[in-house]
Amino acid sequence: MQKPKYTKNFWIEIWLEGMIHINSLTKCYHGKPALKELSMEIGKGVIFGLLGPNGAGKTTLISILNGLSGFQEGEIKIFGLPLGDNLKQIRKRCTLIPQSLALYAHLTVIENLHFFAGIQNIVGASLQNNLEYAISVNHLDTFLEQKAGTLSGGQKRRLNIAIGLLNDPEILYFDEPTIGIDPESRIDILETIRNFKEDHKTVIYTSHYMDEIEKICDEAAIINHGEIIRQGSLQALLQENNDPAMNLESLFIHLTSPEKLNA
Fold first, then answer.
1. Beta carbons of 97 and 59 less than 8 angstroms apart
2. What strands, in cross-sheet order, belong to the sheet with 73-78?
């Protein structure tokens, strides 16, 4: 039997497995661009931060990557697959943890988990394994029989994350998950997210809190008015101006100042 001949592009796609590729993405609302020719690559097992002020385009980008919103121009590939033609297949391998809580207050923690597993047809050994993982990493063991509506803000956020883990996703999208919770819960959730790297999961994390990006992310992109104004490893971004005192917040202020933007 003759051996199949593989093209260079085939091997490139195999190497890129588990990555997100965005090329010249443009999204407009009522004729006004929300994203302008945005391009980025996110590797497997990377925690990637999307940093920007409210209205910068972070949530718009997350919505597009999850197939919740369309776009006018550009190309998106996830796991080497074009997003538009493979949305259902891609979604099975990803999860979105939104700002708003997706849970039922009148159900217990374990009832919520079983309900959301059921609507995704997660059963058998997969259900048991995924439940144990979701409960363990979010420290929900002692709250399983408690009504979700009686949980603290931080506990509800952890339940929200646990629900998102039920399909054992390879890519997790977090859209500002620490809004409105106490400092202790915030630290706990950030530590949970950082540990996903050990499980070889890819995380895309949006925030306007610069310290969160610095604490958990390997790479980041700074977005303003729908455009990427800087992206790269955290180390490279922080060393950009050869200033030992430079942190992400001071870099962000420097890059988004009116003088810089109008230069």
1. no
2. 32-42, 20-29, 73-78, 81-82
pTM: predicted TM-score of the whole model, two decimal places: 0.87
Q: What is the pLDDT of residues 219-247, one digit of tens each?
A: 999 999 999 999 999 888 888 767 766 78
Q: How far apart are CA 178 and CA 239, in angstroms?
A: 27
Helix (H) or strand (E) holding 13: helix 8-15
Q: Which domains does the chain have, with CATH numbers?
A: 19-93+173-257 (3.40.50.300), 103-169 (no CATH)
H/E segment holding residue 166: none
- Give the whole-angstrom CA distance, residue 182 versus residue 105: 20
Compute the distance between CA of residue 28 and CA of residue 45 in angstroms, rounded to an integer. 31
What is the rounded distance in angstroms from the CA atom of residue 120 to the CA atom of residue 93?
12
Looking up tokens 């990493």 gives 137
Burial class of 120 by CB neighbour count within 10 A (0 to 12, 13 to 18, 19+)? middle
